[in-house]
Amino acid sequence: MRCCFYGSSLSAPTETAVSFVCQDERLTGILHRPAQPAAVGVVIVVGGPQYRIGSHRQFVLLARHLAQHGVAVLRFDYRGMGDASGEQRDFEQVSDDIRCAVDLLMTEQPTVKECILWGLCDGASAATFYAQHDSRVTGLVLLNPWVRTTQTQAQTHLKHYYRQRLMDAEFWRKLFNNRLQLAAVTRSLIEQCKQAFKKPTAGPQLPERVLDSLQLFSGNVLIILSGNDLTAKEFIVVADSSDQWRALLKQARVCQKVLPLADHTFSSKVWRDQVAGWTSEWICLKKIK
Domain Serine aminopeptidase S33, which positions (predicted)? Predict the structure, then answer.
């Protein structure tokens, strides 16, 4: 079955408010139904202190774009966020919420036989942790995945922030004109160096756990990175420092895209449109049956 429908003959998709239960708490979402639904659907997993609309309305616009191309989409608030009840929780505690969202999508849109999880930042990491446990999930779209540790954050700052500062003429002008507190800058740099080379704490760290989850997941993966974002740069630092990460990213089932000028939340319409286009094109290429 084809999963995408291009052309001007499409009827307008519909948008329906939905409410469903997860662990005795009530979640709220919007279900986007295509006029000609395909066998694949998308659940948008919110990241950070966000809710189902997204920064700059990105999740709304993405869902409408995909629905116009035949893909049913559910964007929702998990427990403690937006209009959902319950206590706020972090991205490592939302697997039940994601499962309930996938259940709802497939119940309300019976044509959907498989699901793609789409997540930004720690929403991407949450989706990765969940995907391996649900055979209905056959694809992941991960934007600027969150893999932060104290060590990787310091390494990223040293490689990208401090290196840029040292090459910036304005930095040196401020320094020679005594407009910078040299002692404070030096202390900050020394502290970053200490953190960058500090021995990690015992046990698997977040980058290793994300890697393990992606290795255990057998479906297709699209990774989209912003060029002007420290979270994305941190992901690159992590991937470049590990043979296992490099091997994973070279697999045929993994596709990477980079928007060189984009910020973390893709605040420009041009960037949001590119992300939506890449997402729909990737779904078509990977999910046509």
Answer: 56-185
Whether this prediction's pTM lies above 0.85 is answered by: no
Specify whether 188 is located in the same domain as 210. no
Point out which residues pair with 76 in neighbouring strands.
Answer: 29
Report CA dihedral (234, 236, 237, 243) to the nearest 10 degrees.
140
The residues near 259 (Cβ < 8 Å, ≥ 6 apart) are 224, 225, 226, 227, 266, 271, 274, 275
- 156 and 140, same domain (yes or no): no
Q: Are residues 61 and 132 in the same domain?
A: yes
Exposure of 107 by Cβ count < 10 A (0-12 exposed, 13-18 middle, 19+ buried)?
exposed
Q: Render each residue's pLDDT in the chain as its tens digit; 289 residues.
A: 334 433 333 478 999 999 999 999 999 999 999 998 889 999 999 987 889 999 999 999 999 999 999 999 999 999 999 999 999 999 999 999 999 999 999 999 999 999 999 999 999 999 999 999 999 999 999 999 999 876 666 666 566 565 665 565 665 566 556 655 655 656 665 665 655 566 666 567 999 999 999 999 999 999 999 999 999 999 999 999 899 999 999 999 999 999 999 999 999 999 999 999 999 999 988 653 3
213 & 283 share domain: yes
Instruction: Please calculate the CA angle 243-161-250 and round it to the nearest 5 degrees.
Output: 25
Among positive and negative, which fits the CA dihedral 8, 10, 11, 16?
Answer: negative
My answer on whether 172 and 233 are in the same domain is no
Distance CA 123, CA 142 (A): 8
- Provide the domain count of the chain: 2
